[in-house]
């Protein structure tokens, strides 16, 4: 059953703006009135209508140039600093991610689509962050995809050991740089078990890098997502790369290998959680992100045990 807001609740402009601000704040972000208009639930709004809705709402205000709830005024400067850092820190990471994705899909032919997600897509990226990736993969290959991202990500990170880190991205050998945020098998997409506002927002802000036709198929099979965000039907895809000229044959990765990949993935997941054991804020952040992805999170039984 889908969770989240029902499209029927998107009644007035004020309500749509208020719910959008709340959705962003749950994820730790806030945006300018102009940007908020483009991200507004129920369809885009002109900036002047957003400003009118903010002025008319006792719950909302504009601080540091961002639309926020008055209840989080104390965090406005920090949120603004993160948005400003994004403008400079993200510049080098977009082409880096494109190169990584090109290499990833060449060696993992079961991957049908890759999108940039998380802070790099949402506008709050800092140099200490990792790059979150959303993947759509062939059935029976979710764990193989997870292992592929992490193994290739580790090799990639070895060349970037001077990268700034925080409690989430610090690792003994090399920083955590490329991360599998959400991995969906094709059969899970048609239809999606979840077609709520959080899933629609995830697809809206994620920037496709490879395989946009797989994302189009998801939207075709899940029209309720467009009830939340009609903008999904007209998304531009400036980061998309051409398919690599060469890919490993799919026969190299039969589905029965996914069981072994799952065991490797569980061990890697437990190790990553172990490295965060003295950092409760990092553990809490991971727990929140995973909660927004259920029932699609990998290794959930180990995360809850």
Summary, kept brief:
This protein has 305 residues and is of the alpha+beta class. Helix content is 47%, strand content 11%.
Please provide a written account of the structure.
With 305 residues, this protein is α+β, with helices and mostly antiparallel strands. It folds into two domains: 7-87, no CATH class; 90-304, no CATH class. It is built from 13 helices and six strands. A four-stranded mixed beta sheet has the order 5-4-3-6. The chain has a two-stranded antiparallel ribbon with strand order 1-2. Helix 7 links the parallel strand 4 and strand 5. Helix 5 packs across helix 7 and helix 7 (142-157) crosses helix 11.
Set out the fold topology.
Layout: H1 13-26, H2 33-38, H3 47-56, E1 60-63, E2 66-69, H4 76-89, H5 93-107, E3 111-117, H6 118-122, E4 131-137, H7 142-157, E5 178-185, H8 197-205, E6 207-210, H9 212-221, H10 224-228, H11 257-275, H12 280-293, H13 300-304
Parallel strand pairs: 4-5
Antiparallel strand pairs: 1-2, 3-4, 3-6
């Amino acid at each position: 059953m889908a969770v989240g807001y029902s499209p029927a609740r998107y009644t007035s402009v004020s309500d749509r703006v208020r719910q959008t601000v709340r959705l962003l704040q749950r994820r730790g972000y806030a945006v300018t009135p102009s940007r908020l208009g483009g991200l507004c639930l129920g369809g885009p709004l002109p900036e002047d209508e957003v400003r009118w809705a903010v002025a008319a709402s006792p719950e909302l205000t504009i601080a540091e140039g961002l639309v926020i709830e008055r209840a989080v005024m104390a965090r406005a400067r920090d949120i603004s600093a993160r948005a400003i850092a994004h403008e400079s820190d993200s510049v080098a990471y977009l082409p880096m991610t494109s190169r990584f994705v090109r290499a990833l899909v060449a060696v993992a032919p079961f991957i049908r689509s890759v999108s940039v997600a998380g802070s790099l897509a949402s506008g709050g990226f800092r140099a200490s962050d990792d790059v979150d990736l959303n993947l759509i993969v062939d059935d029976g290959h979710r764990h193989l995809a997870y292992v592929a991202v992490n193994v290739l990500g580790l090799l990639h990170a070895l060349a970037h050991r001077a990268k700034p880190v925080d409690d989430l991205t610090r690792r003994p050998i090399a920083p955590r740089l490329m991360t599998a945020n959400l991995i969906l098998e094709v059969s899970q997409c048609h239809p999606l078990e979840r077609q709520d506002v959080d899933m629609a927002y995830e697809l809206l802000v994620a920037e496709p890098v490879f395989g946009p036709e797989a994302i189009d198929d998801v939207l075709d099979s899940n029209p309720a997502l467009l009830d939340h965000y009609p903008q999904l039907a007209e998304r531009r895809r400036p980061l998309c790369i051409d398919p690599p000229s060469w890919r490993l044959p799919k026969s190299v990765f039969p589905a029965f290998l996914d069981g072994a990949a799952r065991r490797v993935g569980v061990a890697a997941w437990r190790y990553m959680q172990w490295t965060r054991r003295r950092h409760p804020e990092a553990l809490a952040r991971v727990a929140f992100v995973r909660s927004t992805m259920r029932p699609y999170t990998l290794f959930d039984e180990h995360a809850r045990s």
